[in-house]
Amino acid sequence: MSTTFCITLFSSWLLLASIVGAQSRPLDVRSFGAKGDGVSDISQALLSAWKAACNSPKPSTIVIPRGTFGLLQATLEGPCKAPIELQNFSFNFLNNSIISGIASLNSKLFHMNILGCNNVTLSRLTITAPGTSLNTDGIHVGRSSGVNITDSTIGTGDDCVSLGDGSKQVSITNVVCGPGHGISIGSLGRYKNEEPVVGVFVRNCTLINTLTGVRVKSWPSATTGAATDVHFDDITMRNVTSPIVIDQEYCPNNQCTLGAPSRVKISKVSFNNIRGTSASALAVKLVCSKTFPCEGVEIGDIDLAYHGSLGNITTNCANVQPTFMGRQNPPICAKNNAAQSS
């Protein structure tokens, strides 16, 4: 069934996470007539549960239990008398949908998981988790096309936005990220039968106190994959530890064998008009695969400064020969260029 989903939230009290002190009995949407048969529309049931929670003087919890529920449209309006927690809320296999005005607080894992969706817009989101919280990606997109993420503020303990395999034609604009691990494609190449990432456009975003800025990462493994037509434009970095990264030796917690080169092909990637400050001396890292070197990497108008005590600002490049346009500060791949000309 092709499902159109539109949820509009006007209540500043909505929290998609656990709320300390919530004492009211959970409101299960099935008690209001919802059926998890994958066909029946639960719009009215969800609205009824929302009204009951909204009128409660105590914090309330609305539960959408495990199962497949069809939802056409629900307008959840406030103001409400107390905070509302909405559990088990994910967005899978949606078409032509708008998700707007949601605040997600302290999710245990991914705040939002976008899977198998087409033509979906996420806007005016506020996602919050401590910088020390593990695996709390703000928005993870996988095997979806036509995804637009815009006008949002995301702070987590992992990637603010992460794009998994099969992400196609994704636009990320006007997003403020921090704390967290920045905006990342990947990691790719860890699992069999991964689909390529094609057409990613990250524009007019600001990253503040993040571990990385904009990044493409893949595992060193025998699994094949691809990421192509990826563009990062007009990005502001504020005290970002690793502002610009291509890392095809991504191996957290020694979970892989670095001796096996990545077989993910990265091509047609551009970094343009990226400025601000790096929190480390190594501001740019472009480390590609020995087996499949990066191709078509373009770098233009980079202006990054480092004011720490660990020496001069530097870059590290391997298995890549970028095309340069405009100004590069610091000089990108300067050692590589010197070696090639000697």
Q: What does the average pLDDT come to?
A: 88
Estimate the helix proportion, in percent. Answer: under 10%
Please give the radius of gyration in angstroms: 22 Å
Strand content: over 45%
Shape: elongated
Spatial gap, N to C terminus: 63 Å
H/E series? EEEEHEEEEEEEEEEEEEEEEEEEEEEEEH
Structural class: mainly beta
Low-confidence stretches: 1-23, 337-342
What is the total tally of β strands? 28
Largest sheet: 13 strands, parallel
Number of helices: 2
Offer a concise description of the structure:
The chain has two helices and 28 strands. The protein is mainly beta and 342 residues long.
What is the element layout, followed by pairings?
Elements: E1 4-9, E2 14-15, E3 27-28, E4 37-41, H1 43-54, E5 60-63, E6 68-70, E7 73-76, E8 84-87, E9 91-92, E10 95-100, E11 103-105, E12 112-115, E13 118-123, E14 126-128, E15 139-142, E16 145-155, E17 161-163, E18 168-177, E19 183-188, E20 197-208, E21 212-218, E22 224-240, E23 242-247, E24 263-278, E25 282-287, E26 295-306, E27 314-318, E28 323-329, H2 334-341
Parallel strand pairs: 1-7, 1-10, 2-8, 3-5, 4-6, 5-8, 9-12, 10-13, 11-14, 12-15, 13-16, 14-16, 15-17, 16-18, 17-19, 18-20, 19-21, 20-22, 21-23, 22-24, 23-25, 24-26, 25-27, 26-28
